[in-house]
């Protein structure tokens, strides 16, 4: 076989969703693929982030459903010694919950590893770094062989990110925690202080509140979820306060310290908040330092993220970057799509450049917030030309049957044409409900076309049709 006939050599550093999908796509297209992973296939998304956190949230949803069942006429009782019914106590066994979710994460990782092995991908355990633009060096730690070297025609960097740590609030893994350390808790915290009201902070605050912890949420901004739709964030904050959560708005943590009984959070205005545990949810940083990226010539943002284009390609023609280490939306779905797209581009297959405008995202609070496309703020500021319509779920027949009182469907349509350009859904399982809006955007449907689809009655999706129908405009001509 001549040099022109040999198979392309692909080396992928990091086995998270992006690296995993890149490896499968590369193998499918006939490349010789080597995947380097230091912890386990699936990376932090599977082992310490998405899978464990959403499993915990599923438990919280079950606890909340039991708590609220009386609203639908369902009552739980046990017979006391007198023979009279007594209301039982609903408790969450956090040790069992954490054992279950970590087991699920480990199984998912093993299933993904098996998928790669069946596809013919070589998996190397160790820490990889670039040695120029055509070689990857892997520290394996094997006895007698501290490192391996792999020549590569194409390199994919998929090293992910880790929780940001602040020196004035250094995690100790016992009382002061990052979200990757929560799964070692054996009992529900008596009083959990969550520092940071972004997506991660809001999700964990919601979950722990539902499983029985007293929760204080420290938000440096005027409202929780400052980067989200303002109406949606207002709904979530109202729900938080009604369920007894302490929301400290415009409050910035200066330091977090351990005490004999737990932790104390000191705010910049001098106030203090005492609790049993503190979760630091102040963002994440890409794992790009010290792995030879800048030495190889990759262009980086000041934040440490790798700059990429719409096919996940860096400024070096044969190096791609995907997932949370790249300057794209930090979502597992985006990482997966970037991984596939990178391989299609590198190996000469048909490529559809990624449009972040049609990527749907979801916040797994209760209720959830799902969004896609342009935002109301962008429309109001004139960045996009559109019309806005919002319909509350409280008017939906199925929502009434289910006892849903909070939430809404909001659609954005292009002025004149009526093309769907975005939407926001606040509802239970909004992550499932946003799909038809995303499909409408992807295929450039108008609100009239969306309104012509027959929804099931009764259903929550009928509110999407109702909103689209309300945006119909009679042709003036």
From TrEMBL:
<feature type="binding site">
    <location>
        <position position="54"/>
    </location>
    <ligand>
        <name>FAD</name>
    </ligand>
</feature>
<comment type="similarity">
    <text>Belongs to the class-I pyridine nucleotide-disulfide oxidoreductase family.</text>
</comment>
<feature type="domain" description="FAD/NAD(P)-binding">
    <location>
        <begin position="9"/>
        <end position="339"/>
    </location>
</feature>
<feature type="binding site">
    <location>
        <begin position="196"/>
        <end position="203"/>
    </location>
    <ligand>
        <name>NAD(+)</name>
    </ligand>
</feature>
<keyword id="KW-0285">Flavoprotein</keyword>
<feature type="binding site">
    <location>
        <position position="324"/>
    </location>
    <ligand>
        <name>FAD</name>
    </ligand>
</feature>
<dbReference type="Pfam" id="PF02852">
    <property type="entry name" value="Pyr_redox_dim"/>
</dbReference>
<feature type="binding site">
    <location>
        <position position="128"/>
    </location>
    <ligand>
        <name>FAD</name>
    </ligand>
</feature>
<dbReference type="GO" id="GO:0003955">
    <property type="term" value="F:NAD(P)H dehydrogenase (quinone) activity"/>
</dbReference>
<keyword id="KW-0274">FAD</keyword>
<dbReference type="InterPro" id="IPR016156">
    <property type="entry name" value="FAD/NAD-linked_Rdtase_dimer_sf"/>
</dbReference>
<keyword id="KW-0520">NAD</keyword>
<keyword id="KW-0547">Nucleotide-binding</keyword>
<feature type="binding site">
    <location>
        <position position="283"/>
    </location>
    <ligand>
        <name>NAD(+)</name>
    </ligand>
</feature>
<feature type="domain" description="Pyridine nucleotide-disulphide oxidoreductase dimerisation">
    <location>
        <begin position="360"/>
        <end position="467"/>
    </location>
</feature>
<dbReference type="InterPro" id="IPR036188">
    <property type="entry name" value="FAD/NAD-bd_sf"/>
</dbReference>
<comment type="subunit">
    <text>Homotetramer.</text>
</comment>
<dbReference type="Pfam" id="PF07992">
    <property type="entry name" value="Pyr_redox_2"/>
</dbReference>
<dbReference type="InterPro" id="IPR001100">
    <property type="entry name" value="Pyr_nuc-diS_OxRdtase"/>
</dbReference>
<dbReference type="GO" id="GO:0050660">
    <property type="term" value="F:flavin adenine dinucleotide binding"/>
</dbReference>
<protein>
    <recommendedName>
        <fullName>NAD(P)H dehydrogenase (quinone)</fullName>
        <ecNumber>1.6.5.2</ecNumber>
    </recommendedName>
</protein>
<keyword id="KW-0560">Oxidoreductase</keyword>
<dbReference type="InterPro" id="IPR023753">
    <property type="entry name" value="FAD/NAD-binding_dom"/>
</dbReference>
<dbReference type="InterPro" id="IPR004099">
    <property type="entry name" value="Pyr_nucl-diS_OxRdtase_dimer"/>
</dbReference>
């Amino acid at each position: 076989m001549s040099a022109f006939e040999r198979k392309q050599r692909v080396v992928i550093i990091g086995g998270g969703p992006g690296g995993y999908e890149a490896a499968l796509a590369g193998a499918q297209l006939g490349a010789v693929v080597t995947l380097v992973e230091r912890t386990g296939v699936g990376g932090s998304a599977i082992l310490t982030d998405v899978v464990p956190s959403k499993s915990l949230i599923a438990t919280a949803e079950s606890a909340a459903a039991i708590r609220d069942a009386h609203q639908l006429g369902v009552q739980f009782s046990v017979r006391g010694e007198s023979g009279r019914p007594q209301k039982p106590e609903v408790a969450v066994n956090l040790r069992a919950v954490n054992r279950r979710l970590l087991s699920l994460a480990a199984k998912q990782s093993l299933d993904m590893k098996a998928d790669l092995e069946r596809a013919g991908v070589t998996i190397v355990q160790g820490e990889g770094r670039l040695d120029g633009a055509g070689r990857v060096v892997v520290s394996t730690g094997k006895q007698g062989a501290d490192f391996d070297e792999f020549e590569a025609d194409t390199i994919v960097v998929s090293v992910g990110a880790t929780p940001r740590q602040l020196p004035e609030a250094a995690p100790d893994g016992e009382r002061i925690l990052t979200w990757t350390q929560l799964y070692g808790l054996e009992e529900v915290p008596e009083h959990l202080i969550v520092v940071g009201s972004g997506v991660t902070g809001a999700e964990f605050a919601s979950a722990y509140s539902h499983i029985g912890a007293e929760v204080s949420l420290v938000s440096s901004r005027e409202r929780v979820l400052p980067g989200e739709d303002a109406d949606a964030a207002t709904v979530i904050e109202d729900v938080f306060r009604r369920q007894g959560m302490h929301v400290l708005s415009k409050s910035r943590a200066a330091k977090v310290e351990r005490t004999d009984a737990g932790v104390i959070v000191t705010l910049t205005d001098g106030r203090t908040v005492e609790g049993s545990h503190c979760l630091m949810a102040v963002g994440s940083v890409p794992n790009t330092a010290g792995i030879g990226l800048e030495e190889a010539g990759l262009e980086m943002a000041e934040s440490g993220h790798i700059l990429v284009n719409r096919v996940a390609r860096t400024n070096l023609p044969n190096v791609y970057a995907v997932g949370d280490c790249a300057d794209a939306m930090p979502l597992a779905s985006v990482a997966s799509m970037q991984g596939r797209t990178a391989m299609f581009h590198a190996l000469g297959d048909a490529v559809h450049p990624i449009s972040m405008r049609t990527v749907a995202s979801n916040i797994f609070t209760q209720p959830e917030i799902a969004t896609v496309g342009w935002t109301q703020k962008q429309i109001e500021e004139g960045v996009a030309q559109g019309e806005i319509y919002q319909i509350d779920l409280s008017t939906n027949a199925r929502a009434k049957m289910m006892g849903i009182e909070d939430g809404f469907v909001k659609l954005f349509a292009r002025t004149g044409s009526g093309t769907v350009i975005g939407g926001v859904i606040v509802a239970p399982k909004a992550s499932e409900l946003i799909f038809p809006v995303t499909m409408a955007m992807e295929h450039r449907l108008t609100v009239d076309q969306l309104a012509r689809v027959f929804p099931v009655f009764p259903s929550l999706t009928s509110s999407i049709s109702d909103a689209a129908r309300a945006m119909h405009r009679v042709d003036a001509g």
